[in-house]
Amino acid sequence: MSLTVTPELVEAAGEGRMTDEDFVACVRTSLPYAYRLVEELVTALPDAGPAGRDFADNQVPPPDEAARGQLLRAMASTSIRSALERHFGVALAFQNCHRVAAFAPEAVGRAQYQAFVSPRAQVLNQQPEFVDC
Question: What angle, 0 to 180 degrees and rounded to 10, lies between the N-to-C axes of helices 20-30 and 32-48?
């Protein structure tokens, strides 16, 4: 299961009362490693611009399999990923079991975003230690 939801959240969702903030709070509680990683990237994003980069990315593998699973669940779920993007005001890009990048939304059409999400970048990012991720 990707998320641990309270009976109150299930009820709110069933009645159409669940807000984006309710959902993000559930993600933050259920997938703390993934949430913190995205939060850290967003915090680093303003510092990336002056260096000529449109993004901040993570190249450090998760500390354990539980953290890896959280990140994979967050990035693989369209609803979770989209909620995080709306909450933080960024576009997220994902290459493998740990390489996540946060881009300012206006950077999506730019060369650095296009390069990051390209098949070429995906192939170049593959390394033997990532085969099992």
Answer: 110
- CB-count burial class (<10 Å; 0-12, 13-18, 19+) for 53: middle
Tens-place pLDDT, residues 65-102:
999 999 999 999 999 999 999 999 999 999 877 789 99
Read off the tokens for 37.
């990683």
> What is the rounded distance in angstroms from the CA atom of residue 127 to the CA atom of residue 12?
44
Q: Three-state SS for 53?
A: coil
CB–CB of 30/2 below 8 Å? yes
Q: Residue 55, Cβ neighbours under 10 Å: how many?
A: 22
What does DSSP assign to residue 7? H
pLDDT in tens, 33-61: 999 999 999 999 866 555 567 899 998 88
